[in-house]
Design a protein that fits this description.
The chain contains four helices and no strands. By secondary structure, it is mainly alpha-helical. It has one domain. It starts with 7 loop residues before the first helix and ends with a helix.
Length: 68
């Protein structure tokens, strides 16, 4: 993923903040081919990620629905 507005090298020094930032980027701006959002990371940082409420509601349905 290329990002022109964030210094990723500095952000990577704080692993938690980098993980949260990366999840937000993946959800808000999409994935590359054959890339998936890690389910465990989404669950781990669920209360800390800031994404669109509609997307967050849909993701919550997918994450915690027993049918998937």
């Amino acid at each position: 993923m290329k990002n022109w507005s964030t210094d990723i090298h500095v952000l990577k020094k704080d692993k938690k903040q980098y993980a949260i930032w990366r999840l937000e980027q993946l959800v808000n701006f999409g994935l590359h081919a054959n890339e998936k959002i890690p389910k465990t990371a989404l669950k781990k940082y669920w209360n800390e990620i800031h994404i669109d409420p509609v997307k967050k509601k849909y993701l919550a349905f997918l994450l915690w629905n027993k049918q998937f």
